[in-house]
Amino acid sequence: MENTNNNWVSMSDKAIISTIGRYVKEQRLLQNKTQAKIAEAAGVNRWTVSQLEKGEAVSLISLLQILRALDLLHVLDNFKLETKLSPLELAKLDKQKRQRARGKDDNKQNESEW
């Protein structure tokens, strides 16, 4: 297996596309699927799968369709956005938390009637 510690910043766009293509090809072969089978499942031409695997540029939508056909959409997990609260917002939320429990209106029953 290849070195997985790619320095993406230092790579050219062409090198990144080639790396993605090699990854897709390796995963396809591990799943023992032909280019034609992946192309059919992805709804693209076999030529598109071939181009991607050769390191040629394909559209983003084609890449997504191919990744979906290979059940590899999890590689996009790094694109997930997480909402991060500032310390000030956290303090405001903490201040809004309930400090005491209040029972039901039992006081009416305990009141004397005289």
TrEMBL record:
One of its GO terms (molecular function) is DNA binding. Gene3D superfamilies: lambda repressor-like DNA-binding domains. Signal peptide: none annotated. It comes from the Bacteria. Residues 24-76 form the HTH cro/C1-type domain. Residues 95-114 are annotated as: Disordered. This is Transcriptional regulator. It comes from Labilibaculum manganireducens.
